């Protein structure tokens, strides 16, 4: 004898109850929306269940990415689609490869070098948002702000715990390395941050200076060399060139140059 079919209203109530128990309220809407489509198209039970669950997973991923982006501390929301590739076409292919997110699973770093206004922060932010959409937790701050955070942790005797906590983030972005010099204690803190993530999780760094000038930024050539060694060992280094995008149509073609040494070209 065939089993008695459950009335539609009872089934709907059961779906509401089970969705609430699973903390997946969007299943109710997806199940209702897809039910007629499934009947009309003759879907199997498996097809219908897969479609409902796919909607729930997609919604969770989108919601999770939005939350990770909110918590990342980005200065603004920038995407790769917003970027003016006419000014930096030489790095477009490299950036497209990075957008796959593979560098995150490989714990590789990304370094963006170039003069002010060439799009380093925009690209760093965009890649950070890509990381969030790939399910990675992200933190963004300027180099000065990272130093302040680490100094606070050190002063409270919590530096090892803070470094361990930061290792749980799939990506941290250190923006504007080189805009202000650091005292040696601050440089040592940045070195510890870099070392704690070496071959474990990814960094994105932006700088207006070539690596050869980082010794002056960190006040110690040995610390700078050791830091650069760990950063670039597994890294994609992209050099952005040209005039500041911010000064277009302002009648200003160039900004004051930062000379990096006799006979050495600007960054």
Can you walk me through this structure?
- With 267 residues, the chain is α/β, with parallel strands linked by helices.
- It folds into two domains: 9-70; 73-245, P-loop containing nucleotide triphosphate hydrolases (Rossmann fold, 3-Layer(aba) Sandwich).
- Helix content is 51%, strand content 10%.
- The protein has eleven helices and five strands, in the order αααααβαβααβαβααβ.
- The chain is elongated, with a radius of gyration of 25 Å.
- The termini are far apart.
Q: How far apart lie the N and C ends?
A: 81 Å
Q: Approximately how much helix is present in the residues?
A: 40-55%
- Give the strand line-up of the largest sheet: 2-3-4-1-5
Q: Main sheet?
A: 5 strands, parallel
List the uncertain runs: 257-267
The CATH superfamily of the largest domain turns out to be: P-loop containing nucleotide triphosphate hydrolases
CATH architecture of the largest domain: 3-Layer(aba) Sandwich
What is the rounded Rg? 25 Å
H-E string:
HHHHHEHEHHEHEHHE
What is the count of β-strands? Answer: 5
Portion of residues in beta strands equals: 5-15%
> In DSSP terms, counting alpha (H) and pi (I) runs of 4 or more, how many helices?
11
Specify the structural class.
alpha/beta
Net shape:
elongated
Total of domains: 2
Can you tell me the CATH class of the largest domain? Alpha Beta
- Which topology of the largest domain does CATH recognise? Rossmann fold
- Mean model confidence by pLDDT: 86
């Amino acid at each position: 004898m065939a089993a008695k079919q459950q009335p539609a209203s009872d089934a709907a109530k059961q779906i509401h109850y089970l969705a609430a128990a699973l903390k997946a309220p969007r299943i109710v809407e997806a199940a209702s929306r897809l039910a007629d489509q499934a009947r009309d198209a003759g879907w199997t039970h498996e097809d219908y269940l897969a479609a409902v669950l796919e909607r729930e997973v997609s919604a969770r991923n989108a919601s999770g990415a939005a939350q990770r982006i909110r918590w990342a501390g980005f200065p603004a929301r920038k995407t790769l689609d917003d970027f003016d590739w006419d000014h930096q076409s030489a790095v477009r292919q490299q950036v497209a490869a990075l957008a796959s997110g593979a560098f995150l699973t490989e714990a590789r770093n990304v370094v963006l070098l170039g003069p002010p206004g060439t799009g380093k922060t925009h690209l760093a932010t965009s890649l950070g948002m890509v990381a969030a959409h790939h399910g990675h937790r992200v933190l963004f701050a300027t180099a000065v702000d990272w130093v302040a955070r680490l100094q606070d942790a050190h002063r409270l005797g919590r530096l090892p715990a803070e470094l361990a906590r930061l290792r749980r983030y799939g990506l941290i972005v250190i923006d504007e390395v080189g805009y202000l010099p650091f005292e040696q204690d601050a440089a040592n803190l940045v070195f510890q941050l870099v070392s704690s993530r070496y071959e474990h999780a990814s960094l994105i760094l932006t700088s207006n200076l070539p690596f050869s000038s980082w010794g002056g930024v960190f006040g110690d050539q040995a610390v700078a060399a050791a830091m650069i060694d760990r950063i670039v060992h597994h890294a994609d280094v992209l050099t952005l060139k040209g005039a500041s995008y911010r000064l277009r149509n302002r009648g200003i073609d160039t900004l004051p140059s930062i000379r990096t040494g006799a006979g050495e070209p600007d960054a």
